[in-house]
Fold this sequence. Notes:
mainly alpha; about 70 residues; 2 helices
Amino acid sequence: xxxxxxxxxxxxxxxxxxxxxxxxxxxxxxxxxxxxxxxxxxxxxxxxxxxxxxxxxxxxxxxxxxxxxxx
Length: 71
């Protein structure tokens, strides 16, 4: 027996939760050496801060609070 179909809104919420979890995982395990482009030592922390700000922007777009991506 199959489960009842999800509504469009339920699908959207599941997608948003999955994306927030993915952002959280990426930021938790992020290492500058994972990039093909070299990131100067003095800018690695700056890049992390920019990534966190952008993650907060996505969280707000989805109706979450700042830092919702933190695991």
